[in-house]
Amino acid sequence: MISKETKDKILAAADIVEVISEFVKLKKRGANYVGLCPFHNEKTPSFTVSPVKGIFKCFGCGKAGDVVTFIMEYEKLTYHEALRYLARKYGIEIEETEPDPEEEAKKKLRESILVLNQFAMEFFKKNLHDSDYGKSVALPYLIERGIPDYLIEKFELGYALPGGKDFLSYARLKGYKEELLLQAGLITQKGNSYTDKFAGRIMFPIHNITGKIIGFGGRIIGKADNTAKYLNTQETEVFQKRYNLYGLYFAKKSIVSKDKCYLVEGYTDVIGFHKAGIENVVASLGTSLTTEQIITIRRFTRNLTIVYDGDPAGIKASLRGINLALEEGMNVKIVKLPEDEDPGSIANSWSGSEVISYLDEKETDFIRYKAAVLLKDSGNDPFKRSSAIADILSSVAAISNRISREFYIKEISKIFDTSEQALIAELNKILANKKKLLAYKQNNTESTTQASKEKTSVPIISSLSTQEEGIIKLLLKFGSNSIEINNNTTTVSEYIFSEIEANQITFTNKTFELIYNEYASGNTNINYYVSHENEEVRKFAADILMTKYDLSKIFEKHNVYLFTEEEMLAKHTVSSIALLKIKLLEQKRAEEEKHLKEIEKEGNTEQILKSITLISQINQAINELKKEVI
Predict the structure, then answer these.
(1) Which of 32, 138, 271, 316 has a CA 20 to 30 Å removed from the CA of 164?
(2) Which helix (H) or strand (E) holds 232?
(3) How far apart are CA 411 and CA 125, in angstroms?
(4) What is the maximum alpha-carbon separation in the chain?
């Protein structure tokens, strides 16, 4: 962990204008600098850098933060990786803090597994090129699959000998213990016996985004009777399949430069595309695409083209991935390959230019792709056509942008010769059902959370985020300001703390809860949050600094003009807390009204009167609080 002192040195040394100017052409405008945003396409500059505040903000796409955030976003690095990048740039020596023993143990295990994986890759590589089995079986197999030497070298392919003990014996000889080999997923255990996990398989190292080997995929050679054709490393301290993509390390620069990512199914598909000169390609590690994998791709581009096998399984997999990608705001295209073909096979059969031409020509939006797949062999069967429309509309419902949805409705109307009005009505039903389902899930989650709490405080609901945001903004902008409430002088922060603690209020938004707790522990300077390790905290704080938070505008909205700035701040602070209390009491009232309906069925007069009295008391409290709201 980088020490706080080192972090402060880095932040003090890093000139945000100087750093960003290496990537964006900036022009001085008043106290700030402006340029074309590097995170989205624009013709008019909306990207602003404030050297005084030490932050940037794009008023087009909304990205904001400090110099560390910019390096993270632009170079696709983690927070500490970005700090190290800036430390190297400004010649600052990094001091590490004393880590937590448990965290240190986990860190050592991760580092050990990474070292072991590198060792294993080199062993498997040597087997491929130097062993009798490698030269007579494995290399001919790769050559037959059309994988040239330069790609075998680039992707560091190897071979695990079929004996079942070769890697284990060599690793033991070099001092590696069975426990670590098991934790890395390189051997298996049965009783007191250990064997190589990947024996007899072509080895495909899986790299993380920085190029470290985090796991392996193994492909059996020949027929795979009673055993899986492909075998991946299981979940380890460094490898979680749902977060990783094969080939991303080799693809990231090309994805960014071309603003597009091809998604294929397997290892050889990725390598085949590289052979065709297409480097902006990744694979989902041979399993169903996950939300986490899509989010990873989205860091580099929002344009995703799915190129799965042309067989029924490949088509089914592509259909599964469409809605997931759309829900994450991706612009999804599909390429349908010829039946019985896969990306690897076409790369071997065609020239690179032919592959690229085919992808460009056959790339289509998800609506036309789904229509072609779902309507195949359906003829004029009205049931099958209506089912196809419903399926396609479910994908449209996954899109959050209303304008995009309207565009796709027009496309569906043309393809199916159906009125837009009918399609919109059906889409609205799907959206309404999604909303109900989401509300149901949220209510269940809240009920479970509330039931597990031992506190008897007022229940918290998930719709309080707006009120919570207002309170946190007051803290960060005006926390140290003095205000007078009921003839007592205090500060904004002291009043907020006293009210939150007295009413045992818990923040539902995790970002606001984190800021509140850290502010309460003494971190009262907003610049601390602009450089915070948490991405959401950084963006929130930067946005506050870049966006004028004008109390006079707030009071103008409510037709209040007769107060000084100090009086306005006091009233706004009291009002914000009152609104939060009202929301909490409204939730309490709703719960009690539900309880009342249940006990009315039982006819217990005493309990009914008790419930009615409580509801009346809550209403009275709400009415009193409303007097404090501006």
Answers:
(1) 271
(2) strand 230-232
(3) 51
(4) 91
d(CA 222, CA 593): 68
Q: What's the CATH architecture for 4-89?
A: Alpha-Beta Complex (3.90)
DSSP string, 258-305: HT-EEEESSHHHHHHHHHTT--SEEE-TTS---HHHHHHHHTT-SEEE
**CATH ID of 251-362, from 1.10.260.40, 3.40.1360.10, 3.60.20.10, 3.30.460.80:** 3.40.1360.10
Task: Give which of 120, 350, 73, 103 is closest to 214, Cα–Cα.
Answer: 120
- Dig out the tokens for 610 from the structure: 């008790």
Name the token pair of 409. Answer: 């409705």
**Structure tokens, 313:** 């399984």
pTM > 0.70: no
**Which distant-in-sequence residues (6+ apart) come within 8 Å of 367 by Cβ?**
392, 395, 396, 408, 411, 412, 415
Q: How many angstroms separate the Cα of 242 from the Cα of each of 231, 563, 622?
A: 15, 56, 47
* Domain residue limits, the chain: 4-89, 100-239, 251-362, 368-430, 462-626
Contact present, 96 and 1 (Cβ < 8 Å): yes
Condensed to tens digits (0 to 9), the pLDDT of residues 423-471 reads 998 888 888 877 766 665 555 544 444 444 443 333 333 346 778 888 8
CA distance 404 to 293: 23
Q: Phi/psi class of residue 547: alpha, beta or left (left: φ > 0; alpha: ψ in -120 to 50)?
A: beta
Per the rule left: phi > 0, alpha: psi between -120 and 50, beta: everything else, 303 is beta
Q: What angle do the packed helices 492-502 and 565-602 form, to 10 degrees?
A: 10
Are 474 and 573 in contact, with CB atoms under 8 Å apart? yes
What CATH architecture applies to the domain 100-239? Alpha-Beta Complex (3.90)
Q: Given its phi and psi angles, is residue 576 left (phi above 0), alpha (psi -120 to 50 degrees) or beta? A: alpha
Q: Are 480 and 491 in contact (CB under 8 A)?
A: yes
**pLDDT tens readout for residues 243-271:** 899 999 999 889 988 999 999 988 999 99
**pLDDT value at 369 more than 70:** yes
- Is-contact 157 202, C-beta < 8 A? yes
Under 8 Å CB-to-CB from 340, ≥6 apart: which residues?
310, 311
3-state SS assignment for residue 231: strand
Place of tokens 């000084």: 564
